[in-house]
Design goal:
- The complex is a heterotrimer of chains A (300), B (278) and C (355).
- Chain A has 300 residues and is mostly helical.
- Helix content of chain A is 75%, strand content 4%.
- Chain A has a two-stranded antiparallel ribbon.
- In chain A, helix 3 packs parallel to helix 7, helix 7 runs antiparallel to helix 10 and helix 8 runs antiparallel to helix 9.
- Chain A is globular, with a radius of gyration of 24 Å.
- Chain B has 278 residues and is mostly helical.
- Chain B is built from 13 helices and no strands.
- In chain B, helix 4 packs parallel to helix 7, helix 7 crosses helix 9 and helix 11 packs antiparallel against helix 12.
- Chain C folds into two domains: 230 residues, 3-Layer(aba) Sandwich (Rossmann fold); 113 residues, OB fold (Dihydrolipoamide Acetyltransferase, E2P).
- Chain C has eight helices and 22 strands.
- In chain C, helix 2 crosses helix 3.
- The two termini of chain C are 41 Å apart.
- Chains A and B meet through helix 1, helix 4, helix 5, helix 7 and helix 10 of A and helix 1, helix 4, helix 5, helix 6 and helix 7 of B.
Chain lengths: 300, 278, 355
């Protein structure tokens, strides 16, 4: 039973999706596979072109035994973990604040969207100035309050620099997650709170049994999204430290870029990129795995 | 006693909100203030806040074409504009098709689109760089636009698909019964109804393009230097010219922040919801 | 004008069969209602008739012509949707005239025909308004106008009144009936409201889980329901149906329900299987004669009062005119009018005539 009308719709559907699919295959699918292939090669620039020499998993072996990579790897995990915990908890507080009747005003939405709208580079420039060793406002405030007795070179000390970058990224990342959690909060039906209150629950108990339960999904989503974004950090490093002092602010994404475009070891850089890809892929899988069972349960 | 507790409670909340707003805005405000102060005021041991010192000279200096910011703004605008237009055109069409038109293997396509949000640009940047080099598209507007489509097109498709799904099916059925072909239904019914959302999605794509940095430094050199690169360079080359450095950052960010504030309702609803739906 | 014929229409969604072996013939000009609860397949069937949904197997014929492969427009049907589905960005006039615009009719013609339809439906003052500026009832009329202007062979209505409040519903119902009387176009109407079906239709098709339970006039469906399902579905309040048994005492057959035994006519033929019995509330009489029962619930609804009585082994609802002063706990005499008794085969649930 072929219905001509439905056939026309299908045809139109194909024509409408074709350009997008073609573009995505060209700029997305093909490069992903090419990247995998590249990681198994030693690629060099030879005059006008490239030489590609197949070397199997040599790139990966040298990566894993490379000290710089190992440090960057650990640093990335540290960075991601701290960032996710910090952003999630601070955003949750902010979302709770904004969910309160006083906080519902649209003024606060405007306030939130400003950090979000700044480009990562503009954000980096801003914090570069704030962290400035000689004239930065952070030093000025802390010194005036007597918390420090001497101006600190925030971006000059290894451990400190990394955490200052972390701080800048946390500041930038809070708005979006706050809004996500806020949407989640507003999706929790009011009658659940009323029922809990009638059952004798106090404010803390209400939070644990109604709010937190209702926020499970948005929290998981936030955790995964933020982890992926934390692994992607680049602009901040480029503008603030370029990896120094002594490579102490080199994270995986930055390392991959540096190996490819500064050190021109393209195969090696591609291998790092692929490892990063795997990490994110696993995170995404975790995302789907954690969420899907919940959805089918709801259906039952 | 109850009212007292209530009053303390609401005072506490107000205090928290105040702190919150302060934390969110303070860095930005400080940046703005800095951009309006002359070098001398900023490099004295105690920042000199004397109102008389406020000046726009930083902005004037920074827009001087030798600094590259003006060119950067122009390039950002061009690239963002055309990326948005192309992404909107193809992405909305695909979004509609995936929402309503029985596309074969639509689930695979959707998975593909979802997956694009979840990996680092560096993975595709390397092969794309090599390919662009081969086709002489490095440092061209067209080249950068093509690369930007790789991450903007999927977002547009996703947002638009979500929106088209929210248009009642009865509307399209009614058009079919009235004699509209699928194309006419799209043209006369779906598109007009979606105009506000289309525009807002376009703005969102514009914002994402403008703020991009990573692909920009890989794919461009001199001709297509976009504003994000310009201010990054500024912060490297002229980093001791603090006022100007911040003025450049403000100029590069202002258009986007204004757009974001104007369209905040849509951005918040659309993107946040999209993330949850995923 | 057209006749409509459905032959063994079947629709499957994956493993779920929404419509099964459905056959129906609608005469030219008839108003037929597809009646059934949510999920019984009536809207799916309507969409199949309209051409908006493909059937898995079967045939749809209009005026003897097989239309399976034709688009909705080519079938010359018009549809009024549950949510009106008015194009929100177009004015009332543009909404009504849209189908003509698609066929590239000259502007003058479109304006004239729209004006004509607007006059018929009292929409002249509203032609320049947008749908969101109209009330529910007005939107409904625009939706009807959009269908009428097509001069279709068949009108299709998909639960068009569900979104209206009770008073408006009844008023719009009347308007649709008048319209049908005036235009005489074959109409298929889908609803779950049995009162609506009874008041509007020439014929009713009662549906259950994708099957046709009964197809007949409102009178037939009401007084001679083909099955227990139809009997319970039609009529408000629901028909009382009892699982009793026949007994022979004093040279007569009686039907025993708990402590009461109903006397049956001599001409009755008793079948050899378990039989259920049903009776509608208007035929349950409270008066001087009958068997004793205790009043359980008294529910006045204006022109009538529904009195539920019980006895050992059963209960029934009687309808009396006006207000009743009976109180729960009182004992009254109840009689079932024997000409209104309906009997159903307990197993097959089909109604059988016993005399």
């Amino acid at each position: 039973m072929s219905n001509e009308f439905n056939l026309k719709r299908k045809q139109m559907g194909i024509w409408f999706t074709l350009p997008t699919v073609i573009i995505l295959i060209l700029v997305l699918i093909y490069p992903i596979f090419a990247s995998i292939v590249l990681s198994f090669q030693k690629v060099r620039f030879l005059g006008q072109g490239l030489s590609k020499e197949f070397i199997g998993i040599a790139n990966y072996i040298s990566i894993f035994s490379n000290h710089t990579f190992q440090s960057a790897f650990i640093r990335s995990i540290y960075f991601t973990a701290i960032e996710v915990v910090a952003i999630l908890s601070l955003s949750l507080l902010a979302a709770l604040l904004l969910n309160h009747p006083i906080g519902r005003h649209s003024f606060f939405r405007v306030v939130l969207i400003i950090p979000w709208a700044l480009s990562p580079v503009a954000n980096a420039v801003l914090w570069k100035w704030i962290y400035n060793a000689n004239y930065g406002i952070l030093n000025f405030i802390l010194y005036s309050l007597g918390i420090i007795h001497e101006y600190v070179v925030w971006l000059g000390k290894p451990w400190l620099a990394l955490n200052m970058i972390l701080l800048a990224d946390i500041w930038k990342g809070i708005p979006f997650i706050t809004l996500l959690l806020l949407a989640g909060l507003q999706n929790i039906p009011n009658y659940l709170y009323r029922a809990a209150k009638l059952d004798g629950a106090n404010t803390w108990q209400q939070f644990v049994h109604v709010t937190f339960v209702g926020l499970k999904t948005p929290l998981v989503i936030s955790a995964v999204l933020q982890s992926i974004w934390a692994l992607k950090v680049f602009d901040l490093i480029y503008v603030l430290t370029k990896g120094s002092p002594a490579d102490s602010t080199v994270l995986l994404n930055y390392l991959a870029w540096r190996e490819t475009f500064s050190n021109l070891d393209i195969g090696y850089g591609a291998a790092i990129a692929n490892i990063l890809f795997c990490m994110m892929f696993l995170l995404a899988l975790a995302y789907i795995r954690i969420l899907r069972p919940r959805q089918t349960r709801r259906g039952e | 006693m109850f009212y007292f507790k209530r009053a303390i409670g609401s005072l506490f909340i107000r205090l928290c909100l105040f702190v919150f707003v302060g934390v969110c805005l303070a860095p930005v405000l400080w940046g703005l203030v800095t951009s309006c102060l002359p070098q001398s005021a900023l490099t004295s041991k105690v920042p000199d806040f004397n109102l008389r010192n406020f000046t726009l000279e930083n902005y004037v200096l920074v827009l001087d074409s030798s600094r590259g910011l003006f060119l950067g703004l122009k390039n950002s605008f061009l690239v963002a504009l055309f990326t948005s237009i192309v992404a909107l055109t193809f992405g909305s069409a695909a979004g509609y098709a995936l929402a309503r038109l029985n596309v074969p293997k639509s689930n695979t396509i959707l998975m593909m689109i979802l997956a694009t949000q979840m990996f680092p640009g560096i993975v595709i940047a390397i092969p794309l760089f090599l390919a662009m080099t081969q086709f002489n598209l490095i440092d061209t507007h067209v080249g950068l636009i093509i690369v930007y489509l790789s991450f903007i097109l999927p977002i547009v498709v996703w947002i638009q698909k979500g929106f088209f799904e929210s248009i009642p099916m009865d509307l399209e059925k009614s058009a079919a019964v009235d004699g509209a072909s699928p194309l006419q239904t799209f043209q006369y019914i779906v598109l007009p109804v979606s105009l506000p959302t289309l525009f807002a999605t376009g703005v969102f794509a514009f914002i994402e393009s403008w703020n991009e940095f990573f692909f920009a430094i890989i794919m461009t050199r001199v001709n297509v230097k976009v504003s994000s690169i310009a201010i990054a360079e500024f912060s490297g080359q002229y980093q001791t010219l603090y006022g100007q450095m911040l003025a450049s950052a403000v100029l590069a960010s202002l258009p986007i922040v204004v757009l974001a504030i104007l369209f905040r309702k849509f951005i918040l609803e659309g993107f946040v919801e999209g993330a949850v739906k995923a | 004008m057209a006749t409509l014929e459905l032959l063994n229409v079947k629709k499957q969604f994956g493993s779920v069969t929404a419509v099964e072996n459905f056959s129906l013939f609608v005469n030219d000009g008839e108003f037929v209602t597809l009646l059934g609860p949510s999920g019984c397949g009536k809207t799916t069937l309507l969409n199949i008739i309209a051409g908006l949904e493909e059937m898995t197997s079967g045939e749809v014929r209009m005026n003897q012509r097989v239309v399976n492969h034709l688009s909705p427009f080519e079938r010359n049907v018009a549809m009024v949707f549950q949510n009106y589905a008015l194009y929100p960005h177009m004015t009332v006039a543009e909404n009504i005239g849209f189908s003509l615009k698609l066929r590239k009719r000259p502007r003058q013609e479109i304006m004239e025909r729209v004006a004509q339809v607007a006059r018929m439906l009292e929409l002249e003052q509203l032609l320049d308004r947008l749908p969101r500026e109209l009330s529910g009832g007005q939107q409904q009329r625009v939706a009807i106008g959009r269908a009428v202007i097509r001069q279709p062979d068949i009108f299709l209505f998909d639960e068009p009144f569900s979104n209206l409040d009770a008073a408006l519903r009844i008023k719009t119902r009347g308007e649709v009936k008048l319209l049908h009387q005036k235009l005489g176009v074959t109409s298929i109407f889908v609803t779950h409201d049995q009162e609506e079906a009874l008041s509007l239709s020439d014929k009713i098709a009662v549906m259950r889980q994708g099957h046709l339970e009964q197809f007949g006039t409102p009178e037939e469906i009401y007084s001679k329901p083909a099955s227990k399902y139809v009997a319970r579905f039609i009529g408000s309040p629901q028909m009382d149906i009892f699982e009793g048994q026949f007994e022979y005492s004093n040279n007569r057959y009686v039907y025993r329900i708990g402590s009461i035994a109903l006397v049956l006519p001599h001409s009755i033929t008793i079948p050899n299987k378990p039989i259920d019995m049903g009776i509608r509330s208007e035929f349950v009489k409270i008066g001087e004669t009958g068997f004793p029962a205790t009043v359980h619930l008294v529910q006045p609804v204006g022109p009538f009062t529904y009195i539920t009585v019980y006895w050992e082994g059963g209960s029934a609802t009687a309808r009396v005119n006006g207000i009743s002063h009976l109180k729960p706990g009182e004992v009254v005499q109840v009689e079932f009018a024997s000409e209104a008794l309906l009997f159903f085969d307990r197993e097959s649930e089909k109604r059988i005539d016993l005399w």
